Task: inverse folding
């Protein structure tokens, strides 16, 4: 997995999380177990279930895989499911920054990450007590079709302006990631880029 090898040597500012974050997607990673098993040891995994009925079984399976592979497991926007599967924390959409801030007060030992799409949202993540933010879309991606990507220069400037560790997300592949080295990002986050 070329992207994983590139992330392992990532020159960015280290943070609480490893330099590579993988995200699940019900359409692009329908077999979340196989996706997780293919990940390199020690990376982070954000499970995004979007209300799937299988979420409890899948989260339990992912927690087992995470223990075996030393993955940092985060559950997207579902603190109850994170508690149920003993995940390492929760990844919050920026629209739920208020809830994330309240959750942080009672979960000081757990990881909190947040999505962001611009400087204002990076500041919101910081105010919510996030340990890291995922800035997207850096490049064109199916996750944000129709949304103009930030591009390497603008995304890098926004990452450098933030005191939080910031991970590049959106169209991240081994090829596009090379355009971000020495950019201020603490690491890379991807879905499809990890399937190549």
Result:
């Amino acid at each position: 997995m070329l992207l994983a090898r590139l992330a392992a040597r990532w020159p960015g500012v280290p943070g609480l999380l490893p330099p590579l974050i993988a995200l699940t997607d019900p359409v692009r990673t329908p077999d979340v177990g196989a996706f997780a098993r293919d990940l390199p040891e020690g990376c982070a995994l954000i499970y995004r279930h979007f209300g799937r009925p299988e979420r409890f079984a899948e989260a339990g399976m992912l927690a087992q895989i995470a223990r075996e592979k030393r993955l940092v497991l985060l559950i997207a926007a579902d603190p109850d499911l994170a508690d149920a599967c003993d995940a390492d924390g929760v990844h919050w959409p920026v629209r739920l920054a208020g809830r994330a801030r309240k959750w942080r007060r009672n979960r000081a030992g757990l990881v909190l990450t947040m999505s962001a799409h611009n400087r204002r949202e990076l500041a919101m993540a910081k105010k919510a007590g996030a340990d890291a933010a995922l800035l997207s879309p850096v490049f064109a991606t199916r996750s944000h079709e129709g949304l103009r990507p930030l591009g390497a220069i603008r995304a890098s400037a926004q990452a450098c302006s933030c005191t939080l560790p910031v991970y590049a997300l959106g169209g991240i592949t081994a090829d596009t990631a090379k355009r971000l080295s020495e950019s201020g990002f603490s690491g890379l986050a991807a879905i499809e880029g990890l399937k190549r």
Q: What stands out?
A: The helical segments are 2-8, 32-37, 55-69, 79-84, 97-106, 119-127, 152-160, 174-177. The beta strands are 20-23, 44-47, 72-76, 89-92, 111-116, 132-135, 166-169, 187-190. The first helix runs from residue 2 to 8. The chain has one domain: 2-8+18-195.
